[in-house]
Amino acid sequence: MTEHTVLPPIGLGTFRLQEQVVIDSVLSALALGYRHIDTATFYENEAAVGKAIRASGVPREEIFVTTKIWWDQLDGDGPIRSLEGSLERLGLTQVDLALIHWPSPNGEVPMADYLDGLGRARAQGLTRHIGVSNFTIAQIDEALALPVGKYLVTNQVEVQPYLANRKLVEHCQRRGLQVTGYMPLAVGKVMKDPVLKAIGERHGASAAQVALAWVVSRGIAVIPASTNPQHQQSNLEALELTLNAEDIAQIDALDAGERIANPPFAPHWDQ
Ligand SMILES: NC(=O)c1ccc[n+]([C@@H]2O[C@H](COP(=O)([O-])OP(=O)(O)OC[C@H]3O[C@@H](n4cnc5c(N)ncnc54)[C@H](OP(=O)(O)O)[C@@H]3O)[C@@H](O)[C@H]2O)c1
Question: What fold does the segment set 12-183 form as a domain?
């Protein structure tokens, strides 16, 4: 079991969504009952996300807001300055979670330095919680050995049926970190999968719901993106879907180590 379960089990991802599209998506998600929104400075949509949060009428304290610090902002007070900018754009005084979006490429900025900066941002009250994203097993161990390690609550990593990421996920969970799974729908690929569709038919569910239920069954928080209120609703309902052992075995068999998010500055991934 994970020590920390601070993140709500499902949130709305906002990567690629801009301006009125992201405003409408966040508004409909909050109206449907989502209480967890995932943004990042890199997504260039924080101002629109903040506008939607304020316009929603949902009390601020009910919404879990995550933002992320890009890898060119890791040096010195970079993490603090980055978060101050995020808060200004979001129109908030504090986020619920601030993540290091990617580890410093080739370790250019020492991890002890940028996690110290992130820890200072937390101590200053800019964020309630802190965490990391796209960290490998070795990087998680290095991070947890630092004094600031005790404050880390999550590693946000790609988890979808074609990339189960099992070793990393289980390592994080063993070490008390909640895992957040991004791109849980493989950016659309799961919707066309015959195995997932067939499992869905047996449960009166969609392939997307099957993929989300499989991620959630592994104790991982999911953050699917959707601009479509019907998809948002159905993704929320996926939390109610219980898969049986045979379904899970069939989905586990889809794992092919197929990674979608793999930019040139990515770390040396665990196999
Ligand atoms: N930390 C990182 O480095 C990192 C990297 C990538 C992503 N992320 C986060 O993870 C979030 C999710 O990843 P993602 O947005 O790339 O991909 P995703 O959530 O796997 O897929 C999003 C796509 O699925 C469609 N979709 C959603 N629900 C559906 C449903 N029920 N039925 C049919 N289609 C559906 C959406 O279209 P519609 O709009 O038409 O519903 C959209 O095209 C991001 O938004 C971001 O917040 C983090």
Answer: TIM Barrel (3.20.20)
